[in-house]
Amino acid sequence: MDWNIDPKTEKPIYKQIADYIEKGIADGTFPTDKKLPSERFLAKELKVNRTTIVAAYDELESNGLIQRKRGSGTTISKDIWGLTKKRIPSWNSYIEAGLFLPNLPIAQKVRKETEEKKLINLASGELSKDLFPIKTLRKLTSTRSFSGRLGYDHPQGSAILRNTIAKHVKQYRDIETDPLSILITSGAQQALHLVVQCLLKPNDSIVIEDPSYHYNLPIFKSTGIKVHHLPVKGNRLDTNKLLELHKKHRIKMIFLNPAFQNPTGTFLSENQKKAILEISAEYGIPVVEDDPYSLTSFNREKVTTLKSMDQNGNVLYISSLSKVVASGLRIGWIIGPTSVIERLSDAKQQVDFGHSSYTQWIANDFLESKIFDPHLENLVNELEKRSNQIVESLNDFLKNKVEFTNPLGGIHIWCKLEKDIDETKLLKNSIKQGVIYTPGSLLGSKNSMYASPSLGKTK
Predict the structure, then answer these.
(1) Which stretches of the chain score pLDDT less than 50?
(2) Model pTM?
């Protein structure tokens, strides 16, 4: 076969093969009165997996160019010019052409494995089911009648809930704000998407921590934003590196998770936070503070947030109830300048016409109830207990094989492998043993692994 796959192009191999065959049909390389090469023959000839040839033939068949019959082989369609045959859309080409990129393959694999198999799940970064306040939520919904709206709510979310959140962040995080500066979102994830899609444009440069949960978010690539990485070492961010990045790339926004960071568990000192805010104020760079974990400090001391230290309105503050109450409520929020909040709420209305009034009502009642403080105390006790348990296991079974720092709060632990180990094989073998975690490369670093000790009951 006088044709070769081009390894340098970004076009998928199966698409290259499909295009080659389509051109061959048009120029007579593949005569209409003869069968096309079998899948096995083409795979051997082109030195690719048979599944790649199957995908190429699927593409051609969906375009109405070929016909496949079991036992008879693959032939060129007799109605190739579409005079009578109804053609099926080439869904693969539509899937690949979409602006919104899919999750990375390894992220899809981790998610699929956790959905299909009964595993000890240290990968998803979600609270264990037994930590959800199910009984309390049932009691709240059974003893009080729903008093929310059944129509579309205010674009920024329930005024009652926003007022409650304003009081909540004042009491627990020393953040002064008002309901007009708050937008209710479908968890922190939607908040991040709104910020990226509404406040940034293609080719803008941003900074994220490395490693970081944000590292694997397709939203940055989907919108054409240039991502630069700020190394996390110990409990420090390299502010000199941040200045260097800004001078070189003109950074438009800084994304940080300062309290018990996902995935390293890093806790930035007040001096580090002051340094970040000074850079933000000097150069006019907004900071997006993602704060799901500041209420989970194991020493029970109140955590100082960047937003509570912000004197200039430079910080957009994102938080949620996902890591302290229940992820299924899908209650998150953004706090920022009123003009920014109005812009983001306008975009959110275009997407979903506002948040569910029912879950907002439940969240409001839970935050205002007397059970919130006891629930939080029990949650932190359990997280600390589970964290200690996994640290003990790491010391017992992987001593001198991994390097890690004992978590001070939150739900994450970051392990650095001492040897150069094949990450794919390690994950595969781990799944065989009934345990799944997230490989470090998905979060920005090789030869590391992330785990969430909040998952699973303690023994």
Answers:
(1) 83-84, 456-459
(2) 0.81
